[in-house]
Write a structure and sequence with these properties.
The structure holds two protein chains of two kinds. Chain A has helices at about 5-15, 20-25, 50-60, 120-130, 130-140, and strands at about 30-35, 45, 70-75, 80-90, 95-105, 110-120. Chain A is an alpha+beta fold. Chain A has a six-stranded mixed sheet. The radius of gyration of chain A is 15 Å and the shape is globular. Chain B starts with a helix and ends with a helix. In chain B, β3 and β4 (about 80-90) form a beta hairpin. Chain B has a six-stranded mixed sheet. Chain B is an alpha+beta fold. Chain B has one domain (about 5-125): Nuclear Transport Factor 2, Chain: A (Roll). The chains are: A alpha+beta, B alpha+beta.
C-alpha cells in the first residue's frame, strides 16, 4: 500500500501543475524552508510561505511559460516524501529538460523543509545565467 | 518491517560500509548502470557491475579510504527506492559533507539502475577534480 506521504507528495505536485498555488502553499508549514541549490538567481534558502511564493514568482518572471513537471514516481516514509520528476523549462526560446528529485521533510501532514536536486546542476545554473536578450540577437 | 526494496537497499548500504563487495555483486544486476552526477573524474555513466564496483574502489582510492556514508532514510515502493544519506569524504586536506540522494530502479529483487544526486555537486567536483 502506498505510504500517505507519497500521496501527499503527489497531491502537492498536482496542485502546482494545476496552478492552484494557494492550495500548494497550504500544504507547507508556515515556517517551511525551501532549499534551491546552485549559484543562479533562484538559489538559496527561502523561508516561510512568503519566501516560497516569492521564489516561484521569480522563477515565473524568468521563464517564457510556467515550468512543467512530468511526474515519474512519488515515494514516502514516515518522515519524508520524495518525487522523481522530469523538469521542463523554457526561457528566451531555449529549453532545459532534465531529471530532478524533490525531497520533503514532512511534519504533521505538511512539508516543513524542501530540497531540490537537479541531475545536472551546472546545466541548470547555465540556463538561468544565460541572457534571453543576447540569445535573441544571435538568432536575428 | 519495511518494503522488500527498502530492506534490499539497507543491505546494500551495510555491505558498502563494511566493504562487502560480494554482497553488492549479489544485490546488483550484472548490467546495472550507475549515473554519477557532477563533472568530476568520478562522474558519468558506469555500466556493468564490475565497472560500478570499480567506481566504488576509485572513490576509496582517491580519498585514501576516507569516504563513508551515513544513512538518513530509505523510501521504497515496488519499482524504486530512494536512499537519503550524508556522504563524508576527505582528500588532500579537503573535507566534504554532502546530503546525497540515490534513486534506485529495482527489478526482480536486483538494482538495475542508480542515479546519484549531490546537494552541492560543485564542492564534490572540486574535491574529486
Amino acid at each position: 500500500m502506498e505510504h500517505p506521504n507519497a500521496q501527499l507528495m503527489r497531491k502537492v505536485g498536482e496542485l502546482l501543475n494545476a496552478g492552484d498555488f494557494q492550495g500548494f502553499l497550504d500544504l507547507h508549514t508556515e515556517d517551511v524552508v525551501m532549499h534551491v541549490p546552485g549559484v543562479g538567481p533562484l538559489a538559496g534558502d527561502h523561508h516561510g510561505r512568503d519566501g516560497v511564493a516569492a521564489v516561484f514568482q521569480k522563477e515565473m518572471s524568468l521563464l517564457d511559460a510556467p515550468p512543467q513537471f512530468e511526474r515519474h514516481d512519488d515515494l514516502g516514509s514516515d518522515h519524508h516524501a520524495v518525487s522523481l520528476v522530469i523538469q521542463k523549462l523554457r526561457r528566451g526560446g531555449r529549453t532545459l529538460e532534465g531529471r530532478q528529485t524533490v525531497i520533503a521533510h514532512v511534519r504533521e501532514g505538511k512539508f516543513s523543509e524542501v530540497w531540490f536536486q537537479p541531475e545536472d546542476q551546472a546545466a541548470f545554473d547555465e540556463f538561468f545565467a544565460h541572457s534571453p536578450e543576447s540569445g535573441a540577437s544571435i538568432e536575428r | 518491517m519495511g518494503h522488500p526494496n527498502e530492506d534490499l537497499i539497507r543491505r546494500g548500504y551495510d555491505a558498502f560500509s563494511s566493504g562487502d563487495m560480494d554482497t553488492l555483486r549479489e544485490l546488483f544486476h550484472p548490467d546495472i548502470v550507475w549515473h554519477a552526477g557532477g563533472r568530476s573524474q568520478l562522474a558519468g555513466d558506469h555500466q556493468g557491475v564490475d565497472t560500478v564496483l570499480g567506481f566504488f574502489a576509485k572513490t576509496m582510492e582517491l580519498t585514501g579510504g576516507n569516504f563513508r556514508v551515513e544513512v538518513h532514510d530509505i523510501l521504497a515502493n515496488d519499482e524504486h527506492a530512494v536512499g537519503l544519506h550524508t556522504a563524508h569524504a576527505e582528500r588532500e586536506g579537503k573535507t566534504l559533507q554532502d546530503n546525497n540522494t540515490l534513486v534506485f530502479h529495482v527489478r526482480d529483487g536486483k538494482v538495475t539502475e542508480v542515479w546519484q544526486y549531490w546537494a552541492d555537486p560543485y564542492t564534490a567536483d572540486e574535491l574529486f577534480a
